[in-house]
Recover the amino acids of this structure.
């Protein structure tokens, strides 16, 4: 039987309860092959709610690194990946602490700290990966509390959300980075999410680069987990704000900062890149202007 060693990459920031729930769900995974081990590498970006301390107390085998609050999510994920390559691999359910046995990981699992995996999710992802072969990425779809798919693979120029099939994998062109299984062979070919994408877009870019390199990607059957919480903050869409404020928000690191968005468009949308680069900012300005006129 081939050994499977998963390097689980996580980031956190001021979501102690959710992070602990995600780790508990990971610890309670069932149906994994006997030779499967996990090494969890968590990078906390300046939490003030005691997240790192709580994780160290309740899950002492998890490798926790605290970095500055100014480190965006995508860069924190890169740090977690670096730690997985230089440190522990472990042999227990949530192993990975310094001093544990070291294994060369066979897969990386990107896992958002807001996602609670269902008990058989990892086994399903690994089973799908085994059928797809070592040159394929496997994505776990995530649903919200209402049962709607909110994160999954993406397909086409419009990045349409791919609904998971009931019994068979669904092909996708790229993916949301909430639950993604990356085999070692794919990592060696594509690498980490690009550091030019500090917060968002790094997952979409990674999927597009993987596809260009000949890597296939599939959404595993069923949902891998669920995420809670309410809707995202309105950001640049908040009613009543002016054009200048709307443009400031849409170009912030939380939405579509200029340089990363331009890089993404130039890489993956040519020859429509000039139009696509400008369109979200033009739409934002128009929406804010109309909102002020109607108000």
């Amino acid at each position: 039987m081939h050994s499977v060693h998963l390097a689980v990459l996580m980031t956190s920031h001021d979501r102690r309860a959710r992070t602990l729930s995600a780790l508990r769900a990971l610890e309670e995974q069932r149906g994994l092959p006997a030779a499967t081990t996990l090494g969890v590498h968590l990078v906390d970006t300046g939490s003030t709610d005691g997240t790192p301390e709580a994780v160290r107390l309740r899950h002492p085998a998890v490798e926790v690194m605290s970095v500055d609050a100014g480190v965006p999510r995508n860069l924190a994920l890169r740090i977690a990946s670096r730690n997985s390559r230089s440190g522990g691999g472990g042999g227990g359910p949530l192993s990975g602490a310094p001093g544990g046995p070291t294994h060369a990981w066979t897969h990386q699992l990107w896992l958002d700290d807001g996602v609670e995996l269902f008990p058989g999710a990892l086994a399903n992802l690994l089973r799908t990966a085994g059928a797809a072969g070592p040159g394929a990425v496997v994505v776990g779809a995530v649903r919200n509390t209402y049962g709607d798919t909110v994160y999954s693979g993406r397909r086409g120029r419009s990045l349409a959300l791919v609904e998971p099939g009931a019994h068979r994998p669904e092909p996708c062109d790229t993916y949301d980075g909430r639950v993604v299984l990356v085999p070692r062979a794919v990592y060696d070919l594509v690498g980490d999410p690009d550091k030019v994408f500090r917060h968002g877009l790094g997952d979409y870019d990674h999927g597009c680069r993987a596809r260009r390199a000949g890597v296939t990607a599939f959404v595993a059957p069923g949902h891998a987990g669920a995420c809670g919480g309410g809707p995202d903050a309105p950001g640049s869409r908040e009613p009543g704000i002016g054009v200048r404020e709307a443009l400031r928000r849409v170009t912030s690191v939380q939405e579509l900062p200029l340089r990363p968005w331009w890089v993404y468009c130039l890489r993956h949308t040519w020859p429509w890149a000039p139009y696509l680069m400008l369109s979200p900012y033009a739409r934002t300005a128009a929406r804010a202007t109309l909102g002020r006129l109607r108000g």
